[in-house]
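Recap from last week: sequence in, structure out.
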Amino acid sequence: MQTVTLSISDGIYDKFFWLLKHFSKNEITILEQSKFVSDDEYLRSIDGMEESLKASRAESIENGVTEDKLDW
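Predicted structure tokens:
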């Protein structure tokens, strides 16, 4: 099976799900449904995130870590 993420216009949302209901459960499975939010809106919704970013901006560049020192 393949997995696809879609952003569906509110105007056709009901029609789109009506169409999906015509497939059997072994053909299409809805894994997750959520309302789309921008990255900025999502980050602002996390308690303390804005304050953390503001504090990070105020830090001295000398306190930073170079990319080669990050443990990815």
